[in-house]
Amino acid sequence: MLFGRSQKNPIKIADKAVVEWKYTTCGYCSTGCSIEVGLDESGKAVASRGAASADVNRGKLCLKGIFEHELFYSANRGSVPLMRDKFYDEFAEVSWDEALDKTANEIKRIQDSYGRDAFAVVSTGQIMTEEFYTLGKLTRGVIGTNNYDGNTTLCMSSAVSGYKRSFGSDGPPGCYEDFEHTECLLAIGSNLPEQHPIIYWRLQQALEKRKFPIIVVDPRVTMFAQMADIHLPVTPGTDVVLLNSLAHVILNEGLEDEAYIKANTNGYKEYKELVDQYDPTTAAKICGIDEDTIRNVARLYAKAGSAMTIWTMGINQSTHGSDGVVGINNLNLITGNIGKPGSTSLSITGQCNAMGTREWSACSGLPGYRALENEQDRKEVAEFWGIDAEFFPKKRGLFQTDIFPAIETGQIKGLWIIATNPMTSMMNTSRIRKIFEKLEFLVVQDAYADVETNQYSHVYFPAAIWAEKQGCFTNTERRVNLISNVLPPYKQSKPDFWIFNQMAKRFDNGQKIKFPEDTEGAFDEMRELSKGRMLDYSGLSYAKLEKQKGIQWPCKEGEETGAQRLYTDGKFQHKDGKAKLIPLPFIDNNEVPDDDYPFWLNSGRVVEHFHTRTRTGKVGNINKFSPTAYMEMNPDAAKELGIKHSSYVRLTSRRGDAVVMVQLTQRVPPNMVFLPFHFYDCVNRLTLGLLDPHSRQPAFKHCAVKIERVEDQELAAVRNKEARTY
Ligand SMILES: Nc1nc2c(c(=O)[nH]1)N[C@H]1C(S)=C(S)[C@@H](COP(=O)(O)OP(=O)(O)OC[C@H]3O[C@@H](n4cnc5c(=O)[nH]c(N)nc54)[C@H](O)[C@@H]3O)O[C@H]1N2
Ligand SMILES: Nc1nc2c(c(=O)[nH]1)N[C@H]1C(S)=C(S)[C@@H](COP(=O)(O)OP(=O)(O)OC[C@H]3O[C@@H](n4cnc5c(=O)[nH]c(N)nc54)[C@H](O)[C@@H]3O)O[C@H]1N2
Ligand code: SF4
Ligand SMILES: [Mo]
């Protein structure tokens, strides 16, 4: 007789008839999962699976990766270049030559009439490293504008700034393998299970082998907070106070690593003086965490032996973003927790190639972590490219968040937007709308023609996407991985690399500088330019990257593979080789709730969507989880206002209003609402986005709103639907 399973129908997995699997890397988040895309006999992409032997994901993918092959066939891809005289005219389809000529002529016209910097370029963290390097060459070496930046200012610039201030250079020093060694994990303002599901899976794997304490700092009870041993629901925007107070306890109870501080850091005295002001009793009143918990966490962290901190947007997107990062670095320096297994200060990056732009795009300086302010760096790059070093500016120009106000005041007249959608992702979008209307010329280069920013363009360049191209991404742990062109570009769309090369040909300097025909040629230049530096690519090659399924930099010429950690010898990138302990006075400059606007407005992400939904909004199996704009609201607060679950409400801030559906949940405290920012004409109509003084990153997560019940629910439903693009 047959028992159990064998009697039942076996589970059937639909036969996708894959005849070939092609290697590539995921194009959504910075985890950097290796993917294989399955093609059927007709060459159609029909499946995605995690590459089993890849160290990052070990065969796993999150739901975005599993459906990524569907992107090749998603709706509203840009198929042909478009052009029009006024942004409110109809677009006409044109040839690539017409679109490129028009753009080159407009750039020259604007630069001739108003000066070189009157034309600005805003890019992304989502194209390939070779494309970033080529765009940097084009912008810095050919077009010659200093107003060149990327959406990483909305995302990573606080981490970059904080790393530079503490360690003398950008570059996250740790890796995922640190979870295997750490004795204590502090996670600040990061919702890892939803935003980096496979990094979280790596953490879970480590915890299955060996228990160590997890401390999560987040004003919401996120999935991560729910699994933590200790959850610190910090008052929004006050993490610096908490960090100062943790240091206060450590230094005043003699729990610091004195030998490490003496050997490897500067600035102890001034730092200690400042930290002395943040005793837990005083700090508790500001950061909302009681004094005993502060003491317990400080002792746990300092006595762990090896402890590590990870953080994401809860730290970076704040008026104290850069200080928050420095505060984390301070904590790890005084406890000697840098550069050792399980001991690190690891910024979890955001976009698939946010690291690649930091390394090679020359947005904030020159390629390979070089600075415009450094004469030697300017000379090296100018010689390598074969141009006069005097062509480079001597200090960096405006950040993205200052470029838009400079359009408002008329200093900037033309703009090229590449793979970012500020019409949805910038704060206070009604102001952004007004700013776009002022531009004499806007060119938008995006894989999707329906991207909202395209409403204001004069020229549209249809770009190829993800695995229609070849090149590299760098992930959170400095791992460079290969994307191979699984399929050719959609219709007439072109790789960003090709577009930059074609544009270069239309300028005088572009004739002088060499622009390699393929991305591997650009990669060779990067290897050459990085030789002997901290950011060393010279030991990498495409073949090696595919074979090892990603390699971490530095990887020096002749080395078989890369290094897992930076600063293992305690030598830092400041001139004297030491790290800096930096005092961080706290200034309370946020917009905070008051009688008129009594709720904190917090915003961020959910697992199923990516950013402005140009991609995930079009994948049915993903979009179905949250097809409409909504917010998390505490049931007690809702009861007081007579608001019901699943009803529509009107949110108003000092900037604007939005209508959203309510999801009642205890994840948020009674004085806060949380909105996923993925929806057009929604949360960023409300946000203020005060800027961090060092990084110019906006405080997307902190402003004040009021909430009103909407009487006419049917009308609200219509309005909510109208605000959706898909
Ligand atoms: N599914 C998915 N994954 C993604 C993305 C996506 O769009 N979708 N985007 C990628 C990108 S570009 C990025 S940058 C990352 C972002 O990844 P995360 O930063 O992890 O995600 P967020 O939801 O933006 O914010 C994280 C948390 O910060 C908390 N927070 C708000 N204010 C404060 C505060 O004052 N202090 C502290 N300590 N915490 C606070 C919020 O409550 C929220 O839970 O995700 C990447 N991964
Ligand atoms: N309120 C609020 N606002 C936020 C945030 C928040 O937490 N709250 N987070 C901020 C953060 S961290 C980030 S990173 C930004 C993200 O904001 P955006 O950068 O504006 O978001 P995306 O939707 O990822 O835009 C990327 C665009 O590139 C296109 N694209 C994809 N691949 C390619 C390609 O290969 N080539 C080209 N040319 N185009 C391509 C996509 O179609 C998409 O339109 O939003 C920021 N805004
Ligand atoms: S965790 Fe990130 S990199 Fe990995 S499959 Fe998901 S979205 Fe892609
Ligand atoms: Mo981001």
What does the secondary structure layout of this molecule look like, with pairings?
Elements: E1 18-25, E2 34-40, E3 45-50, H1 63-66, E4 82-83, E5 92-93, H2 96-114, E6 119-123, H3 129-143, E7 148-150, H4 157-167, E8 184-188, H5 192-195, H6 197-209, E9 214-217, H7 223-227, E10 230-232, H8 239-252, H9 258-264, E11 265-266, H10 268-275, H11 280-287, H12 291-303, E12 307-311, H13 313-316, H14 321-334, E13 344-347, H15 354-360, H16 375-385, H17 400-408, E14 414-418, H18 422-425, H19 429-438, E15 441-446, E16 459-462, E17 471-474, E18 479-483, H20 496-504, H21 508-512, H22 519-530, H23 542-548, E19 551-552, E20 579-580, E21 599-604, H24 620-623, E22 630-633, H25 635-641, E23 648-652, E24 657-664, E25 672-676, E26 703-709, H26 713-722
Parallel strand pairs: 6-7, 6-14, 8-9, 8-12, 9-10, 11-20, 12-13, 14-15, 15-16, 21-25, 22-24
Antiparallel strand pairs: 1-2, 2-3, 4-5, 4-16, 17-18, 18-19, 21-26, 22-25, 23-24, 23-26
The structure holds ligand MGD (2 copies), iron/sulfur cluster and molybdenum atom (MO).
In short:
The protein is α/β, with parallel strands linked by helices and 726 residues long.
Structure notes:
The chain is of the alpha/beta class. It folds into four domains: 20-73, Phosphorylase Kinase, domain 1; 83-152 and 353-517, Rossmann fold, CATH 3.40.50.740; 157-347, Dimethylsulfoxide Reductase, domain 2, CATH 3.40.228; 599-723, Barwin-like endoglucanases (Beta Barrel). The protein contains 26 helices and 26 strands. Strands 5-4-16-15-14-6-7 form a seven-stranded mixed beta sheet, with helices on both faces. The N and C termini lie far apart (55 Å).
